[in-house]
Amino acid sequence: MKILVVCGAGASSAFVAHRMRVTGKERGLTLTVVAGSESDLPGSLGTVDVLLIGPHLAPRYDRLSAQAKKLGVGVALLPQTVFAARDGIQALDLAVNADHERSWV
After folding, report:
1. Which burial class, exposed, middle or buried, applies to 22 when counting CB atoms under 10 A from its CB (0-12, 13-18, 19+)?
2. Is residue 80 packed enough to be buried (19+ CB in 10 Å), middle (13-18) or exposed (0-12)?
3. Closest Cα partner for 17 from 60, 63, 50?
4. Computed from CA positions of residues 93, 95, 96, 98, in that sequence, does the dihedral angle turn out positive or negative?
5. Does this model's pTM top 0.70?
6. Domain residue spans in the chain?
7. What is the Cα–Cα distance from 98 to 93, expressed in whole angstroms?
8. Fold classification of 2-103 (topology level)
């Protein structure tokens, strides 16, 4: 599974992506997690399975989600708590659920 984590500038998402990679490895999952900024969209959507959107982008969630879903990409909005988390459990669980939901569409 390939996951793109986006935030406004890409800095916060880099920390989340790193923690997700560590958690995924601990779970024995094969995944690629990359960080990006909102400006990377929609160009990078065609290359991922799941898009995780940072909470500060919530006002644009509907638009970003629609773009992703058009391409068969699973989408989830990250809660504010994800940036303070010491691990990637919450974010990875959201990504796995979003991937599962897109598989049923």
Report:
1. middle
2. exposed
3. 50
4. positive
5. yes
6. 2-103
7. 9
8. Rossmann fold (3.40.50)
Mean pLDDT of 3-10: 84
DSSP string, 20-64: HHHHHHHHT---EEEEEEGGGTTTTGGG-SEEEE-GGGGGGHHHH
Pull the structure tokens for residue 31.
């995944």
SS3 1: coil
pLDDT in tens, 72-98: 999 999 999 998 889 999 999 999 999
The residues, any chain, with a CB within 8 Å of residue 35's CB and separated by 6 or more, are: 4, 5, 6, 7, 10, 13, 14, 16, 17
